């Protein structure tokens, strides 16, 4: 049983603020993904939870115990590193057994656990090898097995798949999800890959400039971004944004088209729509086609709407070419609105 | 017609390449000879009897006699000088690694105030003719009773070897990813345990190489050894002291005894020589 | 916090050691050179400069450095370039070329003594060829020129290896892509050497020059072994004053002279071979 609670944690590196007062609670057995661009503070936060970095301020609680003053070994965690950190001078067996030997577990128990986790990660036949004789994917498996063998309350993962090639990453992703669900540990997983985040997470915490912008279920983060940043970071291609001018009776005018929108004490707000929530229709937004990219199941159209970049993912049957003008109508219940100054969502419940 | 010219040019360019290759190989051989020939000549002298050494004109093949070396080894004071050399070099080796490795580790793993100041101090030692330290230290040692002792001389030699030890161990530790240590911490190790279970096994060969390097620095040093020792001469100091009075065959035998261990040591550390200097460049 | 004090604890032994055995002695030697019984004086410098051997020793040392260091740099650059073109056998050749690195200056002096002494190999060869009838006293006090040449050869033989090692290590840090790019743009091998190797090697050249020049000013045992006292140099005179004349104040003054020229040359090299911060990789 290990709930993780991060309270008001901040980290300063000299003049640079890596984390501004972060609060986050991860439930027992939850799979939480920290997602963000490089330099957003996600790895720093993970390292603070691991005890590899000390917070400048704030508290870290794991399983109802305050741990921010404890060294990593006393926190009941295991960690998988970006470059795997498989000890080059030890065999695969000794790597997996390393933590168990530190706990002075009886020999039989060490053997049992190493064999079990090695089987689980499909590296049972590699136990006598050294790290130098393994491929990247195999090293990755050793690193995960080494963490699992500890039977920890919490597993922390720092971009564990980022050094694998695309195909291997896909395979490992599915496997990790299965193994970790079975192990019943609480997991915090750092990545900059939104697809990885979407596919693995129970909840995603999106981070930007040292803050957690939104921490919700993946579909919620995708459908209802709490801030403009989330919409533009998640989704490939990302959300479209257009300025909306106040019209009569609480309506908003976007590129000459009128939409029902939220009440706001502003003259201008931002209108947002995902590219796949558009379809060609009379009365839609007037868009001048710039680039057409057929992607197989659909076609990605990059257009210009009143001087703003605008992308649409359309059915591949459509025939368009550069210079055409097309009217693109958004699906009404998928339109989102953002405050231009705070960049927060105008209908988000927070 | 064109085919013929083409073939001709092909032949000549192949010829040129062949000739270039020949010059290349010849140059390398000449340079090897430049390095090896003087050592061979010393070996001839060391392996000839005193009469052969002093004969003229001299033979360019050794007489394969051991009397010169035997005479040298039996010469009063040589055995003791040899022992002193090994002792001083041993202490130097232990001191420079013992003091230098922790500093190298700190430089490779931490960011802290004063780091640059320390680095500058270490690099500054390069701009100073260190053997001159022996002059003021001679006075200091007389006061503290360290004069004419192996330890006193080893302290001076350590100032020579320590900057190297710091820079070399720094590069060794910097070559071990911090992640390995961090992984060990998360797997239940204290800092110290992580160091000797993970870092130490990985850097040990490199540390041994830099220890050997420190040994060679001390073994070869002449000036400070000559200034600081009187009774407890090291081999270099002994040879220097007697160089004007000793017969030729004694000098050559002594030179050979100086050279042989150095050759072995350099052979032992050859793998690390370039890696060391690549980093020490900074 | 343990985290914060640990690096200082680790640096403490080395720092203390260098303070006691490096910084303090240098202050001490400076004080010895300019004081007599606790009072400031320039007498020791006057004694030093007034001695007939001082100008000879000074110029001998300077000329030696001037003759040795540039040749070593050029030779080492040449050897290092050859090394980069070697395929198999590279390791063996490199080991052979770096052998002198392990040889002390005294041993190097003795090695070249075997060649230049009166019954040595040079005379043996020359008489074998019939060039000379009587063995020549190459290292006799009347043959200053050949003494100088012998010392220069011995120094080049002994200490080119250290320059070579520094340069080879430095060349190893230059990415191959630069050469390939230059080749694609049509640069000849010579152009590649002058436009890519030399500029990128500047930090290594700087290190090598500083190290070698300072060591050249410290030349001592090679000279003693080859020429005894026939060829005075600064370091030898320092030893002579300290030991035979038992005047450690004048010896200290000599030490300061060596120190001063060492620092002066270091500063010159630091300045002229500086790599601007923006141009550093």
TrEMBL record, chain A:
It comes from the Bacteria. It holds the Pfam family TOBE_2. Coiled coil: none annotated. InterPro entries: AAA+_ATPase, ABC_transporter-like_ATP-bd, ABC_transporter-like_CS, ABC_transpr_MalK-like, ABC_transpr_MalK/UgpC-like, Mo/tungstate-bd_C_term_dom, NA-bd_OB-fold, P-loop_NTPase. The keyword Transmembrane helix does not apply. The keyword Transport applies. Residues 4-234 form the ABC transporter domain. CDD domains: ABC_MalK_N (cd03301). Keywords: ATP-binding, Nucleotide-binding, Transport. GO terms for molecular function: ATP binding. Gene3D superfamilies: 2.40.50.100, Nucleic acid-binding proteins, P-loop containing nucleotide triphosphate hydrolases. Belongs to the ABC transporter superfamily. This is ABC transporter ATP-binding protein. It comes from Chelativorans salis.
From TrEMBL, chain B:
It is a multi-pass membrane protein. It is found in: Cell membrane. InterPro entries: BP-dep_ABC_trans_perm (IPR050901), MetI-like (IPR000515), MetI-like_sf (IPR035906). Residues 82-269 form the ABC transmembrane type-1 domain. Keywords: Cell membrane, Membrane, Transmembrane, Transmembrane helix, Transport. The chain crosses the membrane at residues 22-43, 81-108, 120-142, 154-178, 198-219, 252-273. Its main location: membrane. Belongs to the binding-protein-dependent transport system permease family. This is Carbohydrate ABC transporter permease.
From TrEMBL, chain C:
The keyword Transmembrane helix applies. The chain crosses the membrane at residues 7-31, 57-80, 92-115, 147-169, 209-231, 251-270. InterPro entries: MetI-like (IPR000515), MetI-like_sf (IPR035906), Sugar_ABC_transporter (IPR052730). It is a multi-pass membrane protein. Keywords: Membrane, Transmembrane, Transmembrane helix, Transport. Coiled coil: none annotated. It is found in: Cell membrane. Residues 58-269 form the ABC transmembrane type-1 domain. PANTHER family: GLUCOSE IMPORT SYSTEM PERMEASE PROTEIN GLCT (PTHR43759:SF1), TREHALOSE TRANSPORT SYSTEM PERMEASE PROTEIN SUGA (PTHR43759). Belongs to the binding-protein-dependent transport system permease family. This is Sugar ABC transporter permease. It comes from Chelativorans salis. The lineage of its organism: Bacteria, Pseudomonadati, Pseudomonadota, Alphaproteobacteria, Hyphomicrobiales.
């Amino acid at each position: 049983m290990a709930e993780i609670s991060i309270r008001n944690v901040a980290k300063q590196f000299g003049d640079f603020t890596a984390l501004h007062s972060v609060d986050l609670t991860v439930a027992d057995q939850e799979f939480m993904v920290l997602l963000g661009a490089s330099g957003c503070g996600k790895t720093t936060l993970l390292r603070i939870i691991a005890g590899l970095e000390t917070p400048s301020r704030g508290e870290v609680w794991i399983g109802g115990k305050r741990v921010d003053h404890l060294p990593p070994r006393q926190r009941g965690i295991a960690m998988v590193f970006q470059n795997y950190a498989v000890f080059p001078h030890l065999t695969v067996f000794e790597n997996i057994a390393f933590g168990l030997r530190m706990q002075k577990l009886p020999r039989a128990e060490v053997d049992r656990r190493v064999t079990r986790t090695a089987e689980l990660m499909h590296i049972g036949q590699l136990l006598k090898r050294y790290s130098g004789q393994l491929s990247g994917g195999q090293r990755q498996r050793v690193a995960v097995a080494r963490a699992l063998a500890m039977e920890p309350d919490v597993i922390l993962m720092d971009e564990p798949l980022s050094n694998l090639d695309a195909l291997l990453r896909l395979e490992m992703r599915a496997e990790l999800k299965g193994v970790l669900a079975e192990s019943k540990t609480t997991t915090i997983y750092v990545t900059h890959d939104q697809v990885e985040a979407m596919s693995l997470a129970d909840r995603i915490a999106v981070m930007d400039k040292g803050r957690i912008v939104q921490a919700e279920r993946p579909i919620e983060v995708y459908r209802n971004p709490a801030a403009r940043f989330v919409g533009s970071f998640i989704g490939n291609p990302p959300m479209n944004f257009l300025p909306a001018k106040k019209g009569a009776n609480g309506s908003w005018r976007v590129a000459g088209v009128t939409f029902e929108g939220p009440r706001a004490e502003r003259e201008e707000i931002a209108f947002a729509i995902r590219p796949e929530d558009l379809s060609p229709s009379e009365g839609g937004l007037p868009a001048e086609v710039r680039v057409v990219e057929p992607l197989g199941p659909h076609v990605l159209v990059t257009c210009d709407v009143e001087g703003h970049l605008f992308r649409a993912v359309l059915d591949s049957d459509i025939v368009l070419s550069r210079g055409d003008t097309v009217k693109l109508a958004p699906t009404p219940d998928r339109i989102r609105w953002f405050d231009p100054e705070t960049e927060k969502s105008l209908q988000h419940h927070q | 017609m064109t085919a013929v010219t083409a073939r001709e040019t092909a032949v000549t360019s192949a010829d040129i390449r062949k000739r270039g290759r020949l010059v290349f190989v010849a140059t390398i051989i000449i340079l090897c000879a430049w390095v090896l020939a003087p050592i061979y000549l010393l070996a001839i002298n060391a392996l000839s009897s005193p009469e052969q050494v002093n004969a003229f004109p001299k033979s360019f093949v050794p007489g394969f006699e051991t009397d010169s070396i035997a005479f040298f080894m039996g010469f009063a004071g040589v055995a003791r000088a040899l022992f002193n050399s090994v002792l001083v070099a041993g202490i130097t080796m232990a001191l420079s690694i013992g003091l230098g490795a922790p500093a190298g580790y700190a430089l490779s793993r931490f960011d802290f105030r004063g780091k640059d100041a320390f680095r500058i101090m270490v690099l500054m030692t390069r701009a100073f003719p260190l053997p001159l330290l022996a002059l003021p230290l001679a006075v200091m040692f007389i006061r503290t009773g360290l004069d004419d002792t192996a330890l006193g001389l080893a302290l001076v030699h350590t100032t020579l070897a320590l900057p190297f030890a710091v820079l070399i161990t720094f590069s060794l530790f910097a070559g071990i990813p911090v992640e390995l240590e961090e992984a060990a911490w998360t797997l239940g190790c204290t800092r110290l345990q992580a160091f000797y279970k993970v870092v130490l096994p990985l850097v040990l060969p490199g540390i041994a190489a830099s220890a050997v390097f420190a040994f060679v620095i001390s073994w070869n040093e002449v000036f400070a050894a000559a200034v600081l020792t009187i009774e407890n001469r090291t081999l270099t100091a002994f040879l220097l002291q007697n160089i004007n009075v000793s017969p030729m065959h004694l000098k050559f035998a002594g030179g050979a005894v100086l050279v042989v261990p150095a050759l072995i040591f350099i052979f032992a550390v050859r793998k690390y020589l370039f890696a060391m200097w690549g980093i020490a460049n900074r | 916090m343990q985290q914060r004090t640990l690096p200082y604890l680790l640096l403490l032994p080395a720092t203390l050691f260098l303070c006691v055995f490096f910084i303090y002695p240098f202050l001490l030697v400076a004080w010895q050179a300019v004081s007599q019984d606790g009072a400031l004086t320039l007498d020791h410098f006057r004694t030093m400069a007034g001695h007939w051997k001082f100008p000879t020793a000074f110029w001998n040392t300077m000329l030696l450095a001037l003759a040795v260091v540039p040749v070593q740099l050029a030779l080492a650059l040449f050897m290092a370039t050859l090394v980069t073109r070697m395929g198999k056998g590279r390791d063996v050749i490199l080991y052979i070329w770096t052998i002198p690195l392990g040889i002390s200056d005294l041993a190097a002096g003795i090695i070249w003594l075997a060649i230049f002494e009166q019954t040595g190999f040079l005379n043996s060869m020359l008489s074998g060829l019939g060039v000379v009838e009587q063995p020549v006293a190459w290292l006799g006090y009347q043959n200053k020129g050949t003494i100088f040449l012998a010392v220069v050869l011995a120094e080049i033989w002994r200490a080119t290896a250290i320059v070579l090692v520094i340069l080879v290590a430095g060349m190893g840090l230059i990415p191959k892509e630069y050469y390939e790019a230059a080749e694609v743009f049509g640069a000849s091998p010579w152009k590649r050497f002058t436009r890519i190797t030399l500029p990128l090697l500047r930090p290594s050249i700087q290190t090598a020059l500083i190290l070698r020049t300072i060591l050249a000013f410290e030349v001592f045992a090679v000279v003693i072994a080859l020429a005894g006292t026939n060829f005075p140099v600064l370091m030898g005179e320092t030893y002579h004053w300290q030991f035979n004349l038992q005047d450690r104040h004048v010896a200290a003054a000599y030490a300061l002279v060596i120190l001063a020229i060492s620092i002066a040359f270091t500063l010159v090299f630091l300045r002229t071979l500086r790599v601007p911060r923006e141009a550093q990789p």
